Amino acid sequence: MDAQTGEGIAGATVSIKETGKFVISGLDGSYTLKNIATGNYTVIVSILSFHNYTLKEIISNNSSQLTLDIFLKPESRILQEVTVVGRNTGATDFGARQLEKISDNVLNILSGHQIQMMPDITVANILRRMPGIIVDRGSNGEGRYPVIRGMDKRYNYTLINGIKIPSPDDKNRYVPMDLFPSEMLQRLEVIKSLTPDMEGDAIGGVMNLVLKDAPSHKMVNIQAGLGYAQLLLNQPFTNYSHDAVNPKSPGEIYGANYIPAYSNFSTANLVFTNNHPLPDVQLGFTLGNRFMKQKLGIILSGSFQSTNRISKDLFFSMSPQPDPVLNGTQPEITDEQIRNYSTHEDRFGLHAKMDFIVNKNNHISLYAVFMQLNSFESRLITDSSSTNRSAPGLGLVSYQSRSKTNFQSVFNTSLQGQHTISKSILTDWSVVYAKAGQKNPDRAELTTQQIFVWNPVSNTAVPETVPLLGGLQRIWQHNNDQDISGFLNIHYRFKKKEQKFDIGAGAMVRHKDRTNYYNQYDFDYINGTAFTNIENAPFTINNAGTPQSLNSYNSTENILAGYGEIRWIPNNKWNILAGIRFENTNQSYDQYQVPPSTFAKTGTVTYTDPLPSFQVKYKTGEKSFLHLAYFSSISRPGFFEIVPYVFPGEYYTEVGNYQLKHVTAENLDLRYELFPGGSNQLLLGTFYKRIENPIEYVYERPATSQSVIQPQNVGTATNFGAEFVYIHYFHKIGISANYTYTHSNIPTSYKYYYKSSYGNDTVTYFTKNRPLQGQAAHIGNLSLLYKDPKSGLELQLATIYTGNHIVYLSQYGAPEGSLDYWQRGTVIVDFSGEKKLGKHFAVYVKLNNLLNTPDIIEMHYSPTVYQQNIWPDASKRNDRILVEKKYFGQVYLAGIRYHL
User: Fold this and answer.
1) Which of 321, 322, 556, 866 has the most crowded CB, counting CB atoms within 10 A?
2) What is the CATH number of domain 1-82?
3) Cis omega before residue 637 (within 30°)?
4) What pTM, to 2 d.p., does this model score?
């Protein structure tokens, strides 16, 4: 233990001189030496920065147990002058704890070391380990978008090295976090309270990806790994020719008025083959050093990940509401779909940074980062319709084959400077250019149909007809976001007796341009035409695409912001920061392809928000604090959301809402923080949020139209909860646990349709309280850790629990149940380990989803007798109707690291 602080010292060598036996102290300072014979011995303890310790001890009996507490005195030397140049990067667990300890914000940090040891390879999956965060899995089983403290993904934003980045998403502002390989991070911060110098459009939280910085010495890190998915061992991977995908539509190649022929379209991307792909590949490197007597620092880091995933999906389609159905307002299943996804992804990352220390008062840095995710997805659907249906698998069966190619990228470059003008005045500035984009070239979907009847002789379903044509659709879509931003901050610091003051002010300006292109081609066919293969299918084009698409638009956004703040430190116990930020937003759009007479063709909205905030930290002890935070914040609608678009989604058609308002919120946090030493910590906190005009996606059916999903403002919501974080090491064993309870409430009006026995339809309304979309009451993580510094072995068994939560909302229901879609709670278990081999090498393994936990989506509604008889797969629980069940299987990865 440290003789001054009493903290356990990890990594000390405890040896017995006479026998040569030694042991390395654990992460809490504990040590054990076994099987020492009776005799007189000399115990020697050594570690850098402490005086060596020597003690003569008599062990009188081999079977006895001797407890020896050792206090080491810090080693100090009297120097005439010392200059310390450096900073805490948060790359180590201890460094992350120190940053949390001194932070003005309520936040949680994962160090680079923690990230490296975890079972995950993307930032999205890493975020699931942090307190209060849900990351739902996509169709390939990988996480994409985080929900922080029950606040949907729209209420968060993403920073790289403290600078906001645009989103490649075609509709929304939030950034897909699976775009980022986790190995490029120095640390990951989730900020849950805003200070005046931060942009104010976050209600849930802010994710700050701090990329690796130039080290103080030469650094060479290289790693490589191979992996495989369990489902690929049991069934083939379905693929299509990626090279056959045309990057541009016929309208882009030949002009908007060109009427294409069937021969203008590739057919090879609708020819699917089955194979067993090569193993997953993960490669990464980091090179860094400082030059010119430590003045110039350079780092270059790169990553490549190639993965193949299969998922199995059982999906039940419901009758569109408000159609009255057989049993009053009881929801009725119309189709049972077996969906199989095969997804190949290539993920690229490249990060470079150069910083130059001009002198002790001036520091300039330039960094650039590029991320690219290429995804190739084959989706095959077998759809058993209710038409002429008397048993599962009979009647009309549709087959849908879809190839979907998606390219997403983010590029960001920033020139920054920090300057000390005088002893009291400091300033910093940033000039930023960022670009994000997405391309979906030639999303091709083919539908064929076949009728099946029951054969009592063979006791099986047999086809009554040959496969018939059912439809063909081709879609091209691409969008680009371009940001030009500038930031300036200035601080004036002074003292009055023992009191310290810091007066700060700053400004931000950002101009954003966004463009979106959409073109859809539909094909005609003769009903009853037999289908043999896609190459000679008798399709004819029925339109020249959609050159006047509602989904093509240009959008601009200008944001001006300014803030003022004051920090007051009256003594060594209090630290108070208060201020106000003003943000002015001007947003406009133009559906440039549609005629001028089109309703809501253009739109402009302008608003200004004052955003006050304060942060108070009180030191309750040498290692503990009370942290109180209040801030006001907003959330702007997505660019596409306020455009009256119509877009075919994964399950339902999605439509825009030009009447959307921006969201405002008041937020309050109170947290007790204890940092006992080392990597250990205890955090106990509570939070409260009041949200005006929250935006949620609602499932509804407009008059004389199909069912759609639409973003809508849904009144006023409250959200409150509590968080618990605990990390502690007992010698070589550690435990890391966090738990978050969240309760949100929105009084919601539901429509209640009823069909009487006389055939008359009636509608009434009833109000019911429900949680926010995406908010789970219970979220928890528990990891058991093992770390042996002597052998270089680290192991982690990690469990994630996510409670049930709403994934889709409905305006319809009955007093006994709504038609909202709920995802059932899940428990996911992962494992990872690393073993050092000598001084420079280490091997590692990462095993994911060991229990093959499915995602299950349900309606909280008792199934009818009709559903129980005809759709037995959807009635496993008496109080719920199964809507969807997805399996992703286990994933394995093993590799080697080199470190210089």
Assistant:
1) 321
2) 2.60.40.1120
3) no
4) 0.89
225-899, CATH topology level? Maltoporin; Chain A (2.40.170)
Q: Which residues pair with 359 in a beta bridge?
A: 362
Residues 6+ apart with CB under 8 A from 889: 141, 229, 230, 231, 310, 311, 849, 852
Domain extents in the chain: 1-82, 93-211, 225-899
Residue among 697, 695, 702, 739 nearest 721 (CA): 739
Residue 324: pLDDT band with limits 50, 70, 90: very low
CB 56 within 8 A of CB 42: yes
Strands 425-455 and 663-677: unpaired
- What's the residue count for the chain? 900
Same fold, 1-82 and 225-899: no
Q: How far apart are CA 548 and CA 561, in angstroms?
A: 36
Bridge-based pairing of strands 156-160 and 205-211 is: parallel
Sequence-separated (6 or more) residues with CB below 8 Å from residue 891: 141, 227, 228, 229, 230, 280, 309, 847, 848, 849
Q: Which two tokens stand for residue 660?
A: 């959307």
Query: Encoding tokens for residue 707?
Result: 């069912």
Residue 58 identity: I
The predicted-structure confidence for 675-716, as pLDDT tens digits, reads as follows 998 889 999 999 999 999 998 877 666 554 566 778 888 889
Q: What is the CATH number of domain 93-211?
A: 2.170.130.10
Amino acid at 544: A
CA–CA gap between residue 48 and residue 525 (Å, rounded): 79
DSSP class of residue 181 equals B
Rounded-to-integer distance, Cα 41 and Cα 69, Å: 16
